[in-house]
Amino acid sequence: MDARSRIVASRGFTMVELLTAIAVIAVLLGILVPVLGQVRAAGHEAREMSAARQLMLAWTSYAVDSRDAVLPGKRSGLTARDNFGVRMAGEAAARYPWRIAPYLDYNLRGLYINEHVRVLAELEQGEEADLGIERSYLMSLSPSLGINGTFIGGNEHPEEHGFDPGFLAAFGTFYVTHAAQIRRASDLLVFASARGQDPLVSGEGPAEGYFMVTPPRLTAIDGERWTATFDASNPPADYGYLSPRYADAAVVGFADGHAARLTTNELRDMRHWANQARREDFALVPR
């Protein structure tokens, strides 16, 4: 081997050096990937926290415009208009998104947050046409944050009994109807991170976003309604449609307008759900 060949050869890496370099890179990736994932999750949580505060501002504005009446969680017989001014009724108008949308200037990205923006984009592009379902219906179904309509505004869902005459006769009007009734605004949950059924993929499992969240207890007769622990593989209803997507915690918008994170255990405290609750295991009893 001449001198030039020896110089060229000396510039290469030995097998040991290459393996060492690969090992170092692997170690660095092992450190960086989890860190980057945590940074990304923290960014998502911060954006959802900001959205929750904006949603609470819109919720308060609705009450101001409605002579202190709070936004119903879900109620039939109401009308609403979409961002094109098209009048709607039925399920789309019964749910909260289209009735609060005017107070968000119809910026629906205030309702569909982070990766959930994909759903909004596909709906806006008319992907729902293949499903034969109205766009307005789908957009009302799965906002990132669900409303605690059971105890604030009323929820006509059969298991929540918001406007059931027989239930109301037995238990009274058990939910807040006007903002002035709220006693502990800084503790009372109005919106929370939710999950339900993907509106664009029929038959698939749970997906992020749903229009309502439901409390762990309602009546003393029914007792505990949630499973003992949260399991993402279970049906969303098993844990009140809540989505503890931030390290076992959900983003919550409170009646005083602030937003915070509550863990799955903290969310079991009925004092966060019911205005009249004085104990964490509160439940309705007949009058």
What does this structure look like?
- There is one protein chain.
- With 287 residues, the chain is α+β, with helices and mostly antiparallel strands.
- It has one domain (3-272).
- Helix content is 31%, strand content 10%.
- The strands form three sheets. The protein has a four-stranded antiparallel sheet. It has a two-stranded antiparallel sheet with strand order 1-2. A two-stranded antiparallel sheet has the order 5-6.
- Strand 7 and strand 8 (259-263) form a beta hairpin.
Quick overview:
The protein is α+β, with helices and mostly antiparallel strands and 287 residues long. It has seven helices and eight strands, in the order ααββααααβαβββββ.
Number of domains: 1
Distance linking N and C termini: 101 Å
Number of strands: 8
Number of helices: 7
Q: What is the CA-based Rg, rounded?
A: 25 Å
What is the spatial order of strands in the main beta sheet? 3-4-7-8
Which short descriptors sum up this protein?
287 residues; alpha+beta; 4-stranded antiparallel β-sheet; two-stranded antiparallel ribbon; 7 helices; 8 strands; 10% strand
Helices, strands, pairings?
Layout: H1 3-10, H2 15-65, E1 80-81, E2 87-88, H3 90-94, H4 97-100, H5 117-124, H6 135-141, E3 145-147, H7 165-171, E4 189-193, E5 195-197, E6 206-208, E7 249-254, E8 259-263
Antiparallel strand pairs: 1-2, 3-4, 4-7, 5-6, 7-8
